[in-house]
From TrEMBL:
Domain Xylose isomerase-like TIM barrel: 56-285
GO molecular function: isomerase activity
Alphabetic keyword roster: Isomerase
UniProt xrefs under PROSITE patterns: TAT (PS51318)
Taxonomy, superkingdom: Bacteria
Organism: Telmatobacter sp. DSM 110680
Statement: the UniProt record of this protein carries the keyword Isomerase: yes
Record-linked InterPro entries: IolE/XylAMocC-like, TAT_signal, TAT_signal_bac_arc, Xyl_isomerase-like_sf, Xyl_isomerase-like_TIM-brl
PANTHER family: HYDROXYPYRUVATE ISOMERASE, INOSOSE DEHYDRATASE
Name by which UniProt lists this protein: Sugar phosphate isomerase/epimerase
Length: 287
């Protein structure tokens, strides 16, 4: 997803915040047993300046897995070699639906070359009627779901898994139907998975635990970010552990989880220092 689109979603995140995620404490809590992953959108401003150096810094900060958000004009061989030298594994990547519809073969070949497990659609943004502009309505989301099923079948045939990453707009409603619920209902569980961005689920007025508990196998991937609510009602992304989102019940409910990726979209201080703090927080998170 491009930067301008991401920024528009940040501005749109002034939706009513869901009730704080809470859950009963387990008697025998243990540290989270997953590799620490990072969405590379977090370092979108650093990678163009020093691609290999930034990857090495991420590894030194405690990350072992990453998810791509663009390839920064690198060939698949160069991208893969840089990751290997840094000791990082690229598990997943983000592409918009329009890219997947027009550049599918190239994106699949690139993904296979760097060993991806998942191809994630980062944003739908496609209307059933291409002449219509504006926000997607329920009919558009149903059309998107059908597109996901078709793409998911082709991605599966290529040896990878297809999924969709939410923001907040998917939690809009029409005639009492939540768009995100319609996506879950209309997509084939064998072809389409979901990467839950927990921060934006909360920003959309919902509790991640409810979805994870009801559809655990639909969510093999998570984006984790922490948020604070500003006086004007908008949400701001902060270092993990410094916001209001409780990730213990979220990870307990995520019984189908395979990988998670920290995504910090904005920083108050040095990005690499804050990303190191994020990684350390997740390593110590007892669930």
């Amino acid at each position: 997803m491009n930067i301008s689109s991401r920024r528009s979603f940040l501005k749109a995140s002034s939706a009513v915040v869901a009730a704080a995620c809470v859950g009963g404490e387990r008697l025998s809590a243990a540290p989270l047993r997953f590799p620490v992953g990072l969405q590379l959108y977090s370092v979108r401003n650093l990678l163009p300046k020093d691609f290999e150096g930034t990857l090495h810094q991420l590894a030194a900060a405690g990350y072992t897995e990453v998810e791509a958000a663009g390839y920064f004009d690198k060939t698949a061989a160069d991208f893969g070699n840089a990751l290997q030298k840094a000791g990082l594994k690229c598990v997943s990547t983000h592409h918009q639906l329009t890219q997947l519809k027009t550049q599918f073969d190239q994106l699949i070949q690139y993904g296979q070359a760097i060993g991806l497990e998942y191809i994630i659609c980062s944003w739908a943004g496609v209307h059933r009627d291409p002449t219509r502009k504006g926000e997607l309505n329920l009919d558009d989301w149903r059309y998107v779901a059908d597109q996901f099923n078709a793409i998911g079948a082709k991605v599966k045939a290529a040896g990878m898994t297809f999924g969709y990453h939410n923001h907040t707009v998917e939690f809009g409603t029409e005639n009492g139907v939540v768009f995100f619920d319609e996506l879950l209902k209309r997509t084939d569980p064998n072809l389409v998975k979901f990467e839950m961005d927990c921060g934006w689920v909360v920003g959309g007025g919902h509790n991640p635990v409810e979805y994870l508990s009801k559809f655990p196998e639909r969510f093999p991937l998570l984006h984790v970010k922490d948020m604070v609510k500003e006086p004007d009602g908008k949400l701001r992304n902060v270092v993990m552990g410094k916001g209001f989102i409780d990730y213990k019940p979220i990870f307990r409910a995520a019984t189908g989880l395979k990988h998670y990726f920290i995504e910090q979209e904005e920083f108050e201080g040095d990005p690499m220092t804050e990303l190191r703090e994020d990684a350390e927080f997740m390593k110590k998170l007892d669930v």
